[in-house]
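Protein Record: Sequence and Backbone Structure Tokens
======================================================

Structure line: whole-number tokens from a learned vocabulary of local backbone shapes, matched to residues.

Purpose: to set a sequence beside its fold so the mapping can be learned.

___
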Amino acid sequence: MSKDVINVHGEEKVVREDTAKAYRGVNWAFLSIGGFILIVAIVALIFFLGAARDGSIKTPAQAANSNSVAR
């Protein structure tokens, strides 16, 4: 069976190749999720800063009142 070396908490360990692939896969999954969260946060921040600058953010009460028809 093939062996591979992984780094766990600064210590190198010799493990089976499938275990090493799974370990690297989990690390990549965490990095991908973190990157996705970072991108979503940046886009939301840009949206809210842009909306706050031109005054188009409305509270739910303001939005409900703007849709009603005066009689």
